[in-house]
Amino acid sequence: xxxSYYYQGxxxxxxxxxxxxDPHAAAEVFAAFAGLPEDKLPVxxxxxxxxxxxxxxxxxxxxxxxxxxxxxxxxLPGQPEGQRSTASNPLVRHLSDMLRFYFEFHRAxxxxxxxxxxxxxxxxxxxxxxxxRTRTATVHVETSAPRLFxxxxxxxxxxxxxxxxARIVSENHPEEAFAELIRSVGALAxxxxxxxx
Length: 197
Hints:
The protein has two domains: about 15-50 and about 130-175, no CATH class; about 55-115, no CATH class. It is built from seven helices and six strands. It has helices spanning about 15-20, 25-35, 45-50, 55-65, 90-110, 120-125, 175-190; strands at about 45, 55, 115, 130-140, 150-155, 165-170. The relative contact order is 0.23.
């Protein structure tokens, strides 16, 4: 998970957070894969695909329902900031509190009452539980230009004449990802058998 290609960064105007905090390490990782067969290249979930995975209050409500909670789990924009969940299932309760924090964070930055769950999506791609398509590219990570530090650039057309070093996710299906998340986490929550009051 890292980089942004046809998309604004979330740390600087051009850089995504993961590559910005250690662009030298990111550059080394991409360099290590250069020239390998395409099926051995890493699959990269860039910001333009992970930010499409926007959890909303209705997803939290659906998760609680799937988990068999005793009542509805409503995380709504009009509620007091920092309100804590009282869900009957502890896993749902903790996830709800975590997501409320991110809903409020994104709202403070004028992005809406949503939570981007970048890590979930990257993990789902790695686990093979979601559909996606990739484009092979040669990725460069900028490590010296001060204003572009951590910026990722993808050569999809081979203009640089360098061997590809990544397969960048170019298509994903958010609604399918949400359904998978709700189904799998709901089952995990049900399996804990830890329903309370």
